[in-house]
Design a protein that fits this description.
globular; alpha+beta; two-stranded antiparallel sheet; 4 strands
């Protein structure tokens, strides 16, 4: 265990796949295939970056907003923005995987619709149509 890893509660929330829509990160219900639910640990931790190039180290995960809001790693980061939970579910992922949603604009609209139904605040970048966004 390297310095700082003792803070990890082994909840696995950072090991869930993320979906990024208009620069907003959404947590999905899909766990990384290397996450062991029984132990709360990565089965390939020492070589996770070679096995899964999308796996981020602790600093990059904090910078990119991958940790949940209640994670000890980000508790003292002022203005930290955690992934949005509960919007992207298996049904939405099936629509994407099944080809029912094929472009980012349609995905953005579906996410905004779901967030509105749930009474959630809509991040500004989701309210701006793609042709008005700066890249």
């Amino acid at each position: 265990m390297t310095h700082g890893e003792e803070l990890c509660r082994r909840c696995g929330k950072c090991c869930r796949e993320k979906l990024i829509v208009a620069d907003v990160i959404f947590a999905t219900p899909i766990m990384c295939g290397w996450y062991d639910r029984e132990t709360g640990l990565c089965r390939v931790y020492d070589r996770r970056h070679e096995v899964n190039p999308d796996c981020l180290d602790r600093d990059a995960a904090a910078t990119r907003g991958v940790f949940p809001a209640d994670c000890p790693y980000v508790q003292n980061i002022k203005g930290y923005v955690a992934p949005i939970e509960g919007v992207v579910d298996a049904g939405l992922l099936a629509m994407v995987d099944g080809g029912l949603i094929t472009d980012e604009e349609r995905l953005r609209q579906e996410v905004v619709k779901r967030m509105t139904r749930m009474g959630m605040r809509i991040p500004r970048s989701l309210t701006i149509p793609p042709h008005f966004r700066r890249h």
